[in-house]
């Protein structure tokens, strides 16, 4: 029997779910996956199943954890390697993870996650372009210091967990980004867990598609 459950939403669309799912899998927690198809906002079955009415939501060995960043921190208690070993790098990783969790609203509004599609991002508003420039700078800084291919070195870590759905958005919407950002996006997309998420999304039933995220 599993140690708990992870409640997530539709893999095609749920960017926050991807973060919780990656963290749980990287930490190798043994939890059952409970997938509730998103209804396009205020999904009643998600409200009933989770404390905040949002996914992801983790129950594990008696602990109840919601908010993707809290789930990541919980997973890092079991898998400390999710954060860099060096104190200064760890501070930077936590800062950029928190910046993602708290911000980039314009980007999230202009370029929603819809991973099975290719969309035209050329009409994104200036606020979204400013978010993209900031993210590109965050990535370039971290990659220059670590040498890549992931933000803090050879392993896919907590900061990558928080930015993986941004990679998905950029792959779909194709904004202009630096060569360093493009190399980073390729590394994230090629990670076996990302490959698995994309494959499972591709197998989701057509009835789960939401018009507002489709071309
Ligand atoms: N701040 C939350 C955001 C979670 C969130 O907004 N999740 C969306 C799905 S990506 C959700 O559950 N929406 C409710 C719904 O669509 O019914 C976190 O970090 O986990």
Automatic annotation (TrEMBL):
Tell me which domain of life the UniProt entry assigns to the organism this sequence originates from.
Bacteria
Q: Where is the GST N-terminal domain?
A: 4-83
Fetch the Pfam families from UniProt: GST_C_2 (PF13410), GST_N_2 (PF13409)
Which InterPro entries does its entry note? Glutathione-S-Trfase_C_sf, Glutathione_S-Trfase, Glutathione_S-Trfase_N, Thioredoxin-like_sf
SUPFAM superfamilies documented for this protein: GST C-terminal domain-like, Thioredoxin-like
The protein in question is named: Glutathione S-transferase
Species this protein is from: Roseomonas haemaphysalidis
What lineage does UniProt assign to this protein's organism? Bacteria, Pseudomonadati, Pseudomonadota, Alphaproteobacteria, Acetobacterales
